[in-house]
Amino acid sequence: xxxxxxxLEQNKKGLTLIELLTSIAIIVVIGSVISGIITSSLRGxxxxxxxxxxxxxxxxxxxxxxxxIEYAEIFNGLSxxxxxxxxxxxxxxxxxxxxxxxxxxxxxxxxxxxxxxxLPDTPTFTVNGxxxxxxxxxxxxxxxxxxxxxxxxxxxxxxxxxxxxPKKQNGLVENSTPPIVFQTSVTMRNYAK
Length: 193
Prior knowledge:
about 190 residues
């Protein structure tokens, strides 16, 4: 009978406290590694989506502004104050303006306003008084309208430039995405015709 008792005691197998703690530690380490990989891939995906949204907004807006200026029937001029408009630029010197007004074919005048105040105020870019960008998905960090003209008889070259970044939110992705620069130069086809 003592032999049977000894065999029963030998068959009782269990984990010691050290074995149990070691198993838990290994599971925690593996779980941390897996959650880090998942979090990293989600951040990368979110950042790619944010950058794509910014690029789509910027490229679309830049192409629309360029098309409206280039193919305008009438160039109404550039202005710093929105009241007095000049239809030519100072020679050779690049000059910054806040307003540009053009009249497309079969449409009323379009006025673009770009105000880039000193920090910390937020710049604005509007068309006929309405925001150009969907500010629920992007933020405007800079805008400029410039004009250069070599001679008084030459066509002015209008420069449009703006920077778009992600919408200001709390989180790592938005803070790690720098603003994207969008810029173009436009020569009007129907200037002084």
